[in-house]
């Protein structure tokens, strides 16, 4: 059951061109967002569509694949894990971030 702990799988559309950073030694980091959509019918029988936005980060070879093939609007499937972190902004206020660290990416669509 350990393989199922903290596992995230999402299919959606990329919200922005990935931001790629290259560190000393050549290791890469990709930051981007993913939109997932869900639709249902409300009490009045009307179709309601909801979009959820997810912050994604990828490192190393996964970031290199994202850099080469992933662009805004592309449909992808990802697998990774949820992480939480905090930092102090320039005003000294504590900020919290939840993001998905991507382990695998699958390119979908055209």
TrEMBL record:
The keyword DNA-binding applies. GO terms for molecular function: single-stranded DNA binding. It comes from the Bacteria. Keywords: DNA-binding. GO terms for biological process: DNA replication. InterPro entries: NA-bd_OB-fold, Primosome_PriB/ssb, ssDNA-bd. GO terms for cellular component: nucleoid. CDD domains: SSB_OBF. HAMAP family: SSB. Homotetramer. This is Single-stranded DNA-binding protein. The lineage of its organism: Bacteria, Pseudomonadati, Bacteroidota, Flavobacteriia, Flavobacteriales. The gene is ssb.
């Amino acid at each position: 059951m350990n393989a199922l702990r903290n596992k995230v799988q999402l299919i959606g559309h990329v919200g922005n061109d990935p931001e790629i950073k290259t560190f000393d030694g050549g290791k890469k980091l990709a930051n981007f967002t993913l939109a997932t959509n869900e639709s249902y019918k409300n009490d009045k029988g009307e179709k309601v569509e909801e979009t959820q936005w997810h912050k994604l980060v990828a490192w190393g070879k996964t970031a290199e694949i994202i850099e080469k093939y992933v662009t805004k609007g592309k449909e992808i499937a990802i697998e990774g894990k949820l992480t939480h972190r905090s930092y102090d902004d320039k005003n000294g206020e504590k900020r919290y971030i939840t993001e998905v660290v991507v382990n695998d990416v699958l390119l979908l669509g055209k």
